[in-house]
């Protein structure tokens, strides 16, 4: 099916960056389409309470924050389609064409790429085979399946601390398996303190996972101590991988420039290597990666797209 409407701005992605961009462009009376991706609301919809987003002194649950932000964009007139982008073509001169997995095409005068990141995997042989059968990446989604059971969380960042803390609501014991030393932990002090104060969490440092055990579901993990060279088996029924993320940019490879780790390269402000294509959020930000910084980045991209269109109509 081909959509013939010409949008001023097509926003790819519906996390805090994409939705904030949509609020700004729609409020500026630009005809705005958001192509939400397979996880409308983005990564925050798989998180629990967000305590550091300004304006919510008691915190706000990630899904609620995203639903409210989406409603705000809709109230200003942004349109949404719940599809996944498969390819992009065109230039600002001849307009851009966005094709989705549902075989729909959409045409826009400018694009804002806000496709975020996806979870990184350990790459162990059994990992994908046992996905959904004990191997998980989202405690909010799957913790309830592990009531009174023993699980492990892999990783030493804020996500790992958050996942482990959330899992203690259901699981009886949570191993927190970290490859760094305690002194080198990447997680913020606040999140570490929260996790380590919980007596259901058993932190294990200098440990790598060597093997995931089980045929039909996870039965344990073989771990290796990087300091002592010892190996042992932990009997667990769930393993939550929380080892960071990778930018969702595979479909952009032939369209705009990416850096060596796959993040979208910025040439000036939020402008990418292609005129008329702007970027916002974690897809271009390996450093800050916060909901609030992504939202701010979205506002910046929207302002840049707006002035780009204003200049383009003056020179037409
Ligand atoms: P991250 O900060 O990149 O941490 C990834 C962790 O996984 C590190 O401990 C890393 O160890 C480890 N790791 C990477 N590859 C590994 C492997 N193959 N095997 C074992 N461990 C591996 O990722 P994140 O925790 O997802 O956080 C991403 C961003 O979101 C951060 O900016 C964070 O502050 C933010 N965040 C904030 C909140 C909050 O404020 N509520 C909650 C969640 C996330 P090395 O250090 O050794 O590489």
Describe the structure.
The protein has 316 residues and is an alpha/beta fold. It has two domains: 6-119 and 245-315, FAD/NAD(P)-binding domain, CATH 3.50.50.60; 135-241, FAD/NAD(P)-binding domain. 23% of the residues lie in helices and 29% in strands. The protein has helices spanning 16-27, 62-75, 139-142, 158-167, 189-196, 291-315; strands at 2-12, 32-35, 49-50, 60-61, 79-81, 85-91, 95-100, 105-113, 117-119, 135-136, 150-154, 173-177, 201-204, 207-213, 220-225, 231-235, 238-241, 245-247, 277-279. The strands form five sheets. Strands 1, 2, 5, 6, 7, 8 and 19 form a seven-stranded mixed sheet that branches. Strands 10-17-11-12-13 form a five-stranded parallel sheet, with helices on one face. A three-stranded antiparallel sheet has the order 14-15-16, with no helix packed on it. Helix 1 runs parallel beside helix 6 (291-315). The longest helix has 25 residues, at 291-315. The mean pLDDT is 95. The chain binds NADP nicotinamide-adenine-dinucleotide phosphate. The site of NADP nicotinamide-adenine-dinucleotide phosphate (NAP) has 18 residues, from helix 4.
Summarize, please.
With 316 residues, the chain is of the alpha/beta class. Helix content is 23%, strand content 29%.
CATH architectural designation of the largest domain: 3-Layer(bba) Sandwich
Helix and strand run: EHEEEHEEEEEEHEHEHEEEEEEEH
Number of helices in the DSSP assignment: 6
Unreliable sequence segments = none
Please identify which CATH superfamily of the largest domain we are dealing with: FAD/NAD(P)-binding domain
**Overall mean confidence score, pLDDT:** 95
What would you report as the Rg, rounded to the nearest angstrom? 21 Å
Number of domain modules? 2
Strand content: 25-35%
Small molecules (ligands, ions, cofactors) in the structure = NADP nicotinamide-adenine-dinucleotide phosphate
CATH topology of the largest domain: FAD/NAD(P)-binding domain
Oligomerization: single chain
Given the helix and strand composition, which structural class is it?
alpha/beta
